[in-house]
Design a protein that fits this description.
13 helices
């Protein structure tokens, strides 16, 4: 079972690839992670299935407890506790309680895989009747990440260490945050009986299999489009912005970084403040142009302007067509463009249009 405020689907995809190299594996399509999608995934398994990977989402107390009662995991991963759906839960502490339901559901012979770098997740060890295996940058983590470097497409290369052994990983997916996802997968894989060297080899070969999650496309005129439009919360938004800045660092002088951003939904009373935080972060990271879409994103563009972007560098538009009008004129060959928002905003249309208008995928 895999849960967390962000990174569930990417981690699930990596885990499915790693386990499939060791035996017949069933995993969800896309984000089938609720009371409908989880049973549908289970019903895909048969007598030949060795590993069943289940993504477990929640928008309130008791949701993960219920999902875990349908299929009680032998290994449960908690990636992080953040602000995704915080408006639905009522606060980050309530989010932590919901994610902790997975740990509480694990029987004594199971294994809880916990993020050593997230204090709220690390404290879930106190809830566990199961064995606990930790992952992260923390020196005390059972599976430790070290020596992270990003290539020209912001794909992380790093070393994983566990039990006195170490192995190098060179990932094919973009974003430094994937190093943490990979460490969680490694900890789960070790708990399932796999060897670290085999896990590292599978991670290095893994591709992103779910649509519109950090899909990096280089077009025929060398424009780079990062389609991360499947969903958004403050933590995943920050990770995507950092990846785009890393990609720009390897581009030709004069290239610009663009962030086309829609609303992060289900943030409740904290929505304005959290959008402002992302706007300030974008400016501080050095994003050159921000196009915000929809009234809810106005705090983001305003905060970016206050933090240093001048007139015309952070603009707010009402809809997708208005955004495309700006992008068709402004995005030059060789620029890098991030497209990201919550699922209901539908910004993947912008990413697909940009790829088409810049000559298609190279």
């Amino acid at each position: 079972g895999v849960t967390g405020s962000s990174g569930k689907t990417g981690t699930k995809d990596l885990l499915a690839t790693v386990l499939a190299d060791a035996g017949p594996t069933i995993a969800p399509r896309g984000s089938f992670n609720n009371e409908l999608g989880l049973p549908m995934t289970i019903l895909s398994a048969d007598e030949s299935t060795r590993f069943l990977v289940l993504e477990m989402g929640a928008r309130g107390k008791g949701h993960i407890e219920y999902l875990a009662s349908i299929a009680r995991p032998d290994i449960g991963i908690v990636l992080n506790v953040g602000t995704a759906h915080v408006g639905e839960f009522g606060g980050v502490d309530q989010v932590a309680q919901a994610k902790g339901e997975l740990v509480l559901a694990l029987p004594p012979m199971a294994t809880a895989v916990l993020n050593a770098d997230d204090p709220r997740v690390a404290r879930m060890a106190n809830l566990a009747d199961a064995r606990v295996r930790t992952f992260g940058f923390d020196e005390a983590a059972d599976v430790r990440i070290a020596d992270v470097a990003l290539d020209a497409m912001a794909r992380p290369h790093f070393t994983l260490s566990a039990g006195g052994n170490s192995a190098a990983v060179a990932m094919k997916v973009s974003g430094e945050h994937y190093a943490m996802n990979a460490a969680a997968v490694a900890a789960a894989g070790l708990a399932a009986g796999l060897e670290l060297t085999d896990i590292a080899q599978s991670l290095s070969a893994s591709q992103q299999t779910s649509n519109w999650r950090m899909e990096v496309t280089q077009t025929h005129d060398d424009t780079i489009v990062v389609n991360d439009a499947y969903n958004a919360n403050p933590e995943s938004m920050a990770a995507a912005l950092k990846a785009v800045v890393a990609i720009k660092a390897g581009l030709e002088p004069g290239a610009h970084s663009w962030a086309v951003l829609g609303e992060m939904r289900e943030l409740g009373a904290q929505s304005n403040a959290l959008h402002e935080t992302i706007g300030r972060l974008a400016a501080e990271l050095g994003i050159d142009r921000i196009v915000g879409i929809g009234k809810a994103v106005e705090p983001l563009t305003q905060a970016a302007a206050v933090a240093g972007l001048v007139e015309g560098e952070a603009v707010l538009v009402p809809d997708i067509e208005a955004a495309l009008t700006i992008l068709r004129v402004g995005v030059a060959p060789g620029d890098v463009v991030l497209v990201k928002a919550s699922r209901a905003v539908g910004l993947e249309d912008i990413a697909l249009a940009l790829i088409d208008e810049h000559g298609g995928a190279a």
